Amino acid sequence: MSVDSASLLTLVWQELAAAVSLPEHPWRIPVLVTGGSQPDGRVVVLRRFQRAPDRLTFFTDARSPKLRAIREDPRVAWVFYHPVLRLQVRVRGQATLQPGTPAVRAHWEALSEIHRREYAAATAPGSPWSGAGFLEWAEASAHFAVVETEAEEWDCLQLDRNEHSRFRFHGGLMERLVP
Ligand SMILES: Cc1cc2nc3c(=O)[nH]c(=O)nc-3n(C[C@H](O)[C@H](O)[C@H](O)COP(=O)(O)O)c2cc1C
Hints:
Structural class: alpha+beta
Bound molecules: flavin mononucleotide
Radius of gyration: 18 Å
Order of helices and strands: HEEEEHEEHHHEEE
């Protein structure tokens, strides 16, 4: 059964909102693709989803290669797949590193010690292993980064035994595409 585009997009937004607070939701850990001089993709945790303007947020270590890539070229793509709904969503947009606002500080304060440790490695993510050394929290907090993507284009593909449906939503316009 083919779905209509508005219902599909509404479903996508509902599932994204749910994914933020449901650890087992398949969309909680999408793939984030960066370009820059070296295209790359990696799994991140979707920390926040906001509508109108549509924004997706992840946390990272400010020293990580993905942030270098975003500084070189802020265009990113997020890729989500929901195996039960058989729904793939690709979101393209521009990523920005959030400045050290009280909101960013509040995210840091809300992290458990286990999660804070992810930003406390003595050397940068991706550098050669030289033993597990940890920074003090004050230093580690300086590496905690919140990155927001402003979504510009949604590409949704729902698989169905009879007829796959694909829609692109861009600049307020919805277009049906050949899957
Ligand atoms: C389930 C899972 C969740 C992850 N979540 C994050 C995340 O939220 N932020 C992050 O920077 N890295 C996260 N990672 C690690 C990244 O996938 C990646 O290995 C690391 O950040 C280095 O990426 P980079 O070299 O592209 O910067 C996660 C990995 C897995 C397997």
